[in-house]
Amino acid sequence: MTSQQHRNLAAMFEIFDVGGDGYLSADDFAAHAKTTCGALQLADGSPHWTTIHTALDSWWEHLLRHTAAENRIPTTDCVTIMADKLVDDDAFFGATVGPIAETVFSVLDADGDHEISTDEYVAVYLASGLTREIAVDAFHQIDTDGDGRIDRGEFVAVVRDAFTADDPDSPGAWFFGVRPD
Ligand SMILES: [Ca+2]
Ligand SMILES: [Ca+2]
Asked: In CATH, what number is assigned to the domain containing residue 168?
């Protein structure tokens, strides 16, 4: 495992550790699902809401399969399990990260034309209190073919890249809030 990949995973699980106690539990994943649904403004019980909650429940179940721990797993162990067991596991991605990425894409694609425009992308950042400059910078990183639109393939690829990237300049390296050194 490269150090960049390790940093990405560690930073991601620090965000997941809602309680901040250095352990992850089913409660953390449920809380993260709730936070994610809130950020995406998904109505309780809606199909997208259900997808997010199901995916994060499944993520926790996948981690549990690779440890003797039962109720909580040290965050550092979660990083190791992800790196050693899950980042190359297509079934894991199909049950967890994939549906989350698809849901985020659908929400960002406000007009439903299967592409995220700069305006659609910036609107979400502005709603989150971030600046247009940050949004445009991020947009260009994800728009890997530079045609001014983010298509579904680019979006899912950049999310998956966040788990496997060892290139500090890759778009995925900062996807979960991690900027390259
Ligand atoms: Ca669109
Ligand atoms: Ca593009």
From this structure: 1.10.238.10
